[in-house]
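Weekly sync, protein design subgroup
Attendees: M.S., D.O., the rotation student, P.L. (late)

Item 1: inverse folding check
M.S. brought a backbone from last month's batch and wanted to see whether the design step gives back something sensible before we order anything. D.O. pointed out we never logged the input encoding, so this time it goes straight into the notes. Structure tokens as presented (254 positions):
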């Protein structure tokens, strides 16, 4: 059995070789174009024109326009003028209210800004005024002991006039304090007088009165100085005359 199977396989091998050689050397026809598939695709809705089909002529555009019937003109409807709707009137009123609120807010903000500016200006003016009253370092004037001296002088004037009338009790301590201030704190008193004069200039009546009083005081002081000098000269003359008379009497007695 085994030998028979081997013989059958050996006899089939030359036959298979001959069949393969015939297929290899057999003449075959080669087409220049692929065969046209005549099956229509199922997803296409229109026919795809092939290369051999002739193009379909399309009519000109003017012919299409002439063939179409003219469209009928629609009648124009006249629109009647209507008044504003309630929504429009409500929107106008809301706009007025908003503008009124906006103006009120702007006015309030302006007032607040003006108040703050005036407060800042007042604070700056106060601090600059206090700083201007202090004496400069170059003068060497010290406020602490000088202020104590002024207070002591005012208290001394009050003690002196404690049993006098109310006019003296109110003016003498003030005069003592002012005099001590001009004596021990001349620069500070000068700054205070300049500041008071600046405020007095805002009221012309007070400024004129102050000027008249100051001029009267200056005239009185100058008059007192002149009279004091005249009195001193008169006393000197009298003393000189008396001394000369005494010396003459002494000489005559000898």
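Designed sequence read out in the meeting:
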């Amino acid at each position: 059995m085994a030998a028979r199977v081997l013989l059958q396989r050996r006899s089939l091998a030359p036959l298979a070789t001959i069949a393969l050689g015939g297929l290899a050397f057999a003449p075959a026809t080669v087409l220049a174009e692929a065969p046209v598939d005549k099956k229509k695709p199922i997803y296409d809705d229109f026919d795809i024109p092939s290369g051999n089909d002739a193009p379909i002529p399309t009519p000109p555009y003017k012919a299409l326009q002439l063939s179409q019937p003219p469209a009928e003109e629609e009648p124009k409807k006249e629109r009647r003028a209507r008044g504003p709707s309630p929504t429009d009137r409500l929107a106008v009123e809301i706009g007025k209210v908003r503008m009124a609120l906006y103006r009120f807010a702007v006015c309030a903000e302006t007032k607040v800004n003006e108040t703050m500016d005036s407060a800042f200006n007042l604070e700056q003016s106060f601090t600059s005024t206090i700083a201007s009253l202090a004496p400069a370092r170059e003068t060497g004037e010290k406020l602490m002991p000088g202020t104590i001296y002024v207070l002591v002088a005012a208290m001394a004037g009050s003690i002196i006039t404690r049993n006098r009338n109310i006019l003296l009790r109110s003016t003498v301590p003030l005069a003592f304090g002012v005099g001590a201030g001009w004596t021990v704190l001349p620069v500070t008193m000068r700054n205070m007088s300049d500041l008071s004069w600046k405020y007095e200039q805002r009221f012309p009546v007070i400024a004129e009165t102050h000027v008249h009083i100051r001029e009267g005081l200056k005239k009185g002081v100058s008059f007192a100085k002149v009279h004091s000098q005249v009195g001193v000269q008169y006393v000197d003359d009298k003393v000189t005359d008396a001394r000369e008379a005494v010396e003459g009497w002494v000489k005559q007695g000898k």
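Discussion: Residues 87-133 form one domain. The two ends are 211 Å apart (CA to CA).
Action: P.L. to compare against the previous round before Friday.
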